[in-house]
Write a sequence for this structure.
């Protein structure tokens, strides 16, 4: 539109020399379509690159990705068609408007105007784009703050220098009665790895996307009810060095020892939530069970800090730990098969100083092969990586929203630039007259910037309450941040204001550099 306005007199000369309006419109369309095709080629390449990046982020850590994101022919055809239709519309409408001008009037310069002729529709579009940019950028800021809070929270364990190895003794042919000997041999061999501090076995480890749960029966307290999870607790079987392995702290009592076996009293360690909920914090020496007939089976010997094992977004539930070396008494025979499965460790925790993941993986696989070539690790990863996979969805949302916010910011800047440039082009004669009458370049620059930024500021003012409403809508996806975050809002408004100033500055400087005689002569 700006270019068509600038070439208005040139088009009038062409019409006067015999060019038809159809020829001029076709010329504009060819130029615009070539631009659309060039942009489309780049967009297709970007589509492939971005799609694979998003896919790797969404399924990070997965062994199998069930989605093929290569754009199909119908999708590509639709995208190219949309680009061409947009190009045609963006070319034909302003070209047709300009060719409707009377050639004689255009050549005589009767288009001189003394006011900003930007249409209401253009101003509304700029305001709308600015408002939407505020919403998207604020949403992106909230999600990024939430993601940072999630990743930096106190999980109740340490991930530094820790590695998680997935194992499956059952597939290697081990019977339940052979497991204690296997764990002992593996422990001895893994501790020979240079820098090894602790080696621990667990049914599963924190935030490994696994969770075992059952009802808790306590002497003198009601039985668990099907519609109430008050007496429902998460549980896990571990080896004695488990808590040192993951870096969890002991609040009271003691950890398990090698002496906690089938020849001694059945013992358990509980987390602080368990102790507070069922025993008002005083849980050492108290008893509970997994069946109503055996509700005094386990004696609590230790209380550990709350660790987030299955959900990083919520307060940890009641949780208790049992040693691998002790077998649970079972009253109901149908439960005996499950008790045997509990003794098959699913993961090994390695706490090793001054080692790289690649070196550790090679050392670990060699150690397993030395114990039993059939016992091959199913997986190997750092503890930090295992934890990070719990935030794939949050990271995906934050990055996509940030991407959309940046796109909205760019579109708003382009829109403001276009409207300002169009206004300057229409006001060329007016600006020439004002400068001929004594207006300096600074006042012209200030005037153009003021008019342009006024539309943007209106959009920002409208966008703030919309951003707050969006924050309320997103509240269920946020962690540790409210629906409205002042630092996020301030940064968003500052970025948008800076982008709008830069976008408006280019045509404003062009207006201020107009030579009065050239402008008047053009008119």
């Amino acid at each position: 539109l700006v270019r068509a306005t600038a070439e208005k007199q040139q088009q009038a000369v062409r019409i006067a020399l015999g060019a038809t309006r159809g020829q001029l419109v076709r010329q504009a369309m060819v130029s615009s379509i070539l631009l659309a095709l060039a942009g489309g080629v780049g967009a297709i390449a970007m589509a492939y690159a971005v799609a694979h990046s998003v896919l790797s982020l969404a399924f990070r850590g997965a062994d199998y990705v069930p989605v093929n994101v290569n754009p199909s022919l119908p999708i590509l055809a639709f995208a190219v068609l949309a680009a061409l239709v947009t190009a045609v519309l963006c070319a034909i409408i302003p070209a047709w408007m300009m060719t409707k001008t009377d050639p004689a009037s255009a050549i005589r310069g009767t288009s001189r105007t003394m006011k900003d002729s930007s249409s209401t529709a253009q101003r509304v579009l700029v305001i709308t784009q600015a408002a939407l940019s505020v919403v998207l950028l604020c949403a992106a800021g909230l999600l990024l703050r939430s993601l940072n809070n999630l990743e930096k929270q106190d999980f109740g364990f340490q991930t530094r220098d820790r590695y998680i190895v997935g194992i499956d003794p059952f597939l290697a042919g081990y019977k339940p009665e052979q497991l204690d000997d296997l764990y002992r041999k593996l422990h001895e061999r893994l501790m020979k790895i240079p820098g090894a501090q602790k080696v621990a076995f667990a049914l599963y480890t924190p935030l490994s996307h696994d969770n075992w749960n059952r009802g808790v029966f306590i002497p003198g307290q009601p039985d668990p009810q099907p519609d109430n999870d008050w007496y429902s607790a998460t549980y896990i079987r571990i080896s004695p060095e488990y808590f040192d392995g993951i870096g969890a702290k002991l609040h009271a009592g003691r950890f398990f020892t090698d002496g906690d076996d089938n020849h001694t009293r059945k013992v358990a360690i509980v987390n602080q939530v368990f102790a507070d909920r069922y025993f008002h914090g005083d849980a050492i020496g108290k008893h509970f069970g997994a069946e109503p007939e055996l509700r005094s089976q386990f004696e609590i010997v230790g209380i550990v800090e709350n660790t987030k094992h299955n959900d990083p977004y919520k307060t940890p539930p009641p949780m208790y730990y049992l040693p691998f070396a002790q077998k649970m008494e079972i009253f109901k025979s149908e439960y005996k098969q499950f008790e045997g499965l509990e003794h098959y460790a699913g993961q090994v925790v390695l706490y090793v100083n001054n080692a790289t993941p690649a070196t550790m993986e090679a050392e670990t696989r060699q150690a397993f092969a030395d114990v039993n070539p059939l016992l091959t690790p199913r997986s190997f990863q750092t503890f930090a990586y295992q934890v990070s996979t719990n935030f794939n969805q949050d990271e995906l949302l934050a990055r996509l929203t940030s991407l959309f916010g940046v796109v909205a910011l760019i579109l708003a800047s382009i829109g403001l630039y276009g409207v300002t440039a169009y206004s300057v082009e229409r006001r060329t004669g007016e600006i020439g007259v004002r400068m001929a009458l004594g207006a300096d370049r600074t006042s012209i620059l200030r005037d153009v910037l003021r008019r342009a930024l006024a539309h943007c500021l209106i959009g920002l003012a409208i966008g703030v309450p919309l951003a707050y409403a969006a924050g309320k809508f997103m509240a269920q996806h946020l962690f540790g941040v409210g629906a409205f975050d002042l630092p996020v809002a301030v940064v968003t408004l500052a970025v948008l204001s800076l982008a709008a100033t830069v976008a408006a500055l280019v045509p404003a400087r062009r207006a201020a550099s107009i030579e009065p005689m050239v402008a008047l002569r053009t008119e």
Remarks:
- The radius of gyration is 35 Å.
